[in-house]
Specification:
With 731 residues, this protein is an alpha+beta fold. Helices cover 57% and strands 14% of the residues. The protein is elongated.
């Protein structure tokens, strides 16, 4: 069984309504599963065999492969049985051996090979007999030697691997020059920064003032003195970007999975389709907010930059921009020294960088847009929330919802809690009309996207669960080898929470607490379930709690505790160090961050590894030039279609990756139909499903199909394109 245990499947011998004699076998899949009874047999060479059995079913859903006979490790099966069939029906699969004897495993199955089924299946009178010949139009499993096809596939795979090696070597050569320039720039920037910090820290005004006075550049003098914290942060972030981020981007293009989905949506818009059309399957409503795709498609159209290049290299700007924007936001709340330290923790602390500084979309969804909204909101609150300002802030929150709904609701929820606490707990005056505008305008702007989604039938019963044990582990240990530094970090954070609690009634400080609170609310059940599962299992009452611990909740929690960390750090520092040596805190910042910073540099796991080459595969050009923009493809490799095929072509695909759930599409049915088309040995079954999905082409990767599957598709469809590792056929 794929999922073992009585909770999923029960297999037993029963005496109810057997086909012959007194007993039969029952396989009962209570939940979706791949369950089978197996027996190994030795087959002599150069023979034909019929493996047959009588089968009846009860409530077997048409999701999955149903009740079948098969030979283990071969995809071909007998004609499946679904639904409730009370009479016994014979099912067969024929086996052909080659020039050598074979030991194979015969299977009585309910579900199989990633296409699980539920319900009950009964098997009786199973037998394996020698036959003189194999009839036409029957499922055949060729377990013999197939030297021609196998050698061809081996050769094709070797050719593909060599081509990939050559392509990677070429990319490294092209990047070498850029790396040299990067190193030169890094050395120059570091040298300049060291000189600047040396002047400021050691001699401060006694050195810099006479120089500026001699040069008679009072404007520069005033600017440097007024914005010294901003300039220091700018240069430190620039160093981090040049030394750390740029080489990683040139080497690896570390785009997260979400980016490839966003690229496909943006390319879908560039193909002339509506922003409300789904780039995955023709005719289905888009399940992801369209604003980002529309914006990126517009920038690509205006500038002429290829959409994937635009997404990839925009992270350099976005990730460098985040600490600067964070600094500006915090200057509305604290002294610049506190804002400087808190913003500096973003690039220097790898526990945050590992999950944020590896791709542009998580950043633009979760940080740049929400920080901009908070910065404007806090500024308006301090100046007094008027109707005009409420409209501006409501529009920004609505755009957040259309950019990334979950992130938008974290912002929306945090500000909502802040307003309610201000009114009902701290008795602060808040005008009714601005309050209503802030409450209703974001929802009004979000409604053109949300209402069609909410009104459509919910076809996918799988709940949203984005719970990641890996994120939890990295969260608490912070990628720092020494536990003492971890304890020190939380000591500073707790100190900041305690000290700032005295000022909680102040505008801005309260909203900071609310943002931390709203992110904790989203995580709490997930943490409880995680801890329970790592100790003595998850109690039954905990299993049904909603788990909303998405990466956005964690990112925001990490982001919004940084001001408390920086405030607590400097508060403790000023208590312990004489004000005469207040610049000493820069040295302590360096010592505090250096170990984690070095760990981050040396730790390759901190960066996502690109699954495919950033250079488009050869077949992409053929697909782009020779197929309709809305053509529907059946793709055999889910990674290839998600990370390679769709981002470059934006063609429609019958998708079978169930992790990304669209409530308006029956994902399980679509995934199982995909499997049925790839596995069926019956051309009529394939054509009926192809008609249902308006299928135009089949894209097969040789690594994902067996020789008999490849033969089946080549015999029934026209080959349009073929290269060393894949084939495209027209339906």
């Amino acid at each position: 069984m794929y999922n073992p245990g009585n909770d999923f499947t029960e297999i037993k011998v029963i005496d109810t309504n057997p086909f012959e004699k007194k007993r039969c076998v029952q396989i009962y899949n209570k939940k979706n599963n791949d369950a089978r009874l197996t027996q190994e047999v030795n087959l002599p060479p150069d023979n034909y065999f019929e493996f047959s059995c009588r089968i009846r079913t009860e409530d077997v859903t048409n999701e999955g492969i149903g009740a079948v006979l098969s030979v283990q490790d071969y995809i071909t099966t007998s004609v499946p049985l679904y639904g409730t069939i009370n009479e016994w029906r014979k099912r067969s699969v024929y086996i052909k051996t080659g020039g050598t004897a074979k030991r194979v495993t015969l299977c009585l199955c309910l579900g199989g090979y990633g296409a699980g089924s539920t319900g009950k299946a009964y098997f009786d009178a199973a037998e394996l007999v020698v036959t003189n010949a194999i009839p036409d139009n029957v499922p055949i499993v060729d377990v013999g030697d197939i030297p021609t096809i196998e050698k061809q596939l081996v050769k094709q795979n070797e050719t593909y691997k060599q081509a990939q090696i050559i392509k990677n070597q070429k990319q490294k050569q092209e990047q070498a020059t850029a790396h040299i320039m990067t190193a030169i720039a890094a050395v120059m920037i570091i040298a300049g920064l060291i000189a600047l910090l040396t002047v400021i820290i050691i001699k401060k005004r006694r050195v810099i003032m006479p120089i500026l006075k001699i040069m008679k550049i009072d404007v520069i003098k005033d600017f440097i003195l007024t914005h010294k914290f901003f300039l220091m942060l700018f240069f430190l972030v620039l160093i981090f970007t040049v030394v750390m981020t740029l080489p990683k981007v040139l080497d690896n293009q570390p785009l997260s999975a979400d980016v490839y989905r966003d690229v496909a949506y943006a390319q879908n818009v560039l193909n002339g389709n509506s922003i409300f059309s789904d780039a995955t399957i023709k005719g289905e409503f888009i399940w992801y907010p369209p604003l980002n795709a529309l914006m990126m498609a517009g920038i690509s159209k205006i500038t002429g930059i290829r959409i994937l290049d635009l997404y990839n290299y925009s992270q350099l700007f976005i990730n460098a921009f985040i600490p600067i924007l964070f600094f500006l936001f915090l200057t509305t709340l604290f002294d610049k020294k506190y804002a400087f330290l808190s913003a500096l923790l973003i690039p220097l602390m790898p526990w945050l960088s590992t999950h944020v500084f590896q791709g542009p979309m998580p950043s633009v969804h979760s940080f740049a847009f929400i920080l901009l909204s908070l910065f404007i909101y806090v500024s308006h609150e301090k100046a007094g929330m008027t109707i005009k300002r409420a409209v501006i802030n409501g529009a920004l929150m609505g755009m957040c919802l259309l950019m990334h709904t979950l992130s938008g609701f974290i912002l929306y929820g945090g500000i909502g809690i802040y307003v309610l606490l201000s009114i009902f707990v701290f008795k602060q005056k808040y005008r009714l009309i601005p309050f209503l505008i802030l409450a209703l305008l974001p929802l009004l702007l979000w409604s053109p996207y949300a209402i069609p989604n909410l009104l459509r039938p919910k076809l996918n019963p799988v709940p949203i669960v984005f719970f990641s044990n890996v994120l939890l582990d990295r969260n608490w240990y912070l990628y720092i080898p020494t536990r003492s530094l971890c304890v020190l970090f939380w000591l500073f954070t707790i100190t900041g929470f305690a000290v700032l609690a005295k000022h909680i009634k102040q505008k801005g400080i309260l909203i900071l607490y609310c943002m931390v609170g709203i992110t904790l609310i989203g995580q709490v059940f997930g943490y409880v379930q995680y801890w329970a599962s790592t100790t003595h299992g998850v109690p039954e009452f905990l299993k049904n709690l909603p788990r909303l611990i998405t990466h956005e909740f964690q990112w925001y929690f990490q982001l919004f505790i940084l001001p408390f960390t920086g405030y607590g750090f400097l508060t403790l520092l000023y208590k312990c160090i004489n004000k005469k040596y207040k610049w000493t805190y820069i040295i302590i910042i360096f010592l505090f961050c250096i170990q984690s910073y070095v760990t981050f540099i040396k730790n390759n796991e901190a960066w996502a590894k690109g699954k495919f080459s950033f250079t488009p595969p050869d077949y992409v050009e053929w697909v782009t030039k020779n197929t309709d923009k809305n053509a529907v493809f059946l793709v055999s490799n889910e990674n290839q279609c998600f990370f390679d095929f769709q981002p470059y072509t934006a063609r429609k695909i019958i998708y079978h990756k169930s992790e990304y759930m669209n409530f308006n599409i029956d994902v399980e049915k679509r995934k199982n139909d995909n499997k049925r088309m790839l596995l069926t040995a019956h051309i009529n079954e394939f054509r009926s499903l192809a008609t249902l999905y308006k299928l135009d082409y089949i894209l097969l990767n040789f690594d994902d199909v067996t020789p008999d599957r490849l033969k089946f598709f080549k015999e029934n469809f026209d080959t349009m394109y073929e290269e060393e590792f894949l084939i495209i056929l027209k339906v």
